[in-house]
């Protein structure tokens, strides 16, 4: 029990935040030899074990360090993660192209401010997604990995909400109130398409970072859709 006492004394000297973090981690290391002779909290070979508290209503489990390491959730990117990031970069780029027209062609200050907000939000998101792809390159078509192809056979032109070349031409040529009306119409559809893509990633993806990016798109663009509908 002297070992356990030294551990408690060590925790007592830590700043409150550090000690609380150790408790909040939810995994308590039971040192071999600090229990009684029955070895209830030790592995058969006398090694230390880890007590993992169960969910509410469930009993705790004892794990070896090796089992605890394997119990960590696997958030390896899958095909849905790669497809979402690759396609959303292209999707965002079109939104930036459309928004760049507003300062010179929009009539309403509200439309100009909206275009500024879209640029301010989506440009950094493109950078974050590009960095993610650099860390998690998609397997090539012949690699046999779960990515199975650079773009999963998706046609960028077929992405939901994307404006056609003809629509972009009309927007580029429009000015004043006509531009405002067409911009709001096309950008609302564009945002709705982004929500569809984010929903697919949240339903089929596996990577935590991609989930966070998709949730950010849902939160930001849902609010902007409501704003554009009110403006229209």
TrEMBL record:
Residues 53-79, 137-160 are annotated as: Disordered. Residues 148-157 have a biased composition (Basic and acidic residues). Residues 81-231 form the DUF305 domain. It holds the Pfam family DUF305. Signal peptide: none annotated. This is DUF305 domain-containing protein. It comes from Streptomyces caledonius.
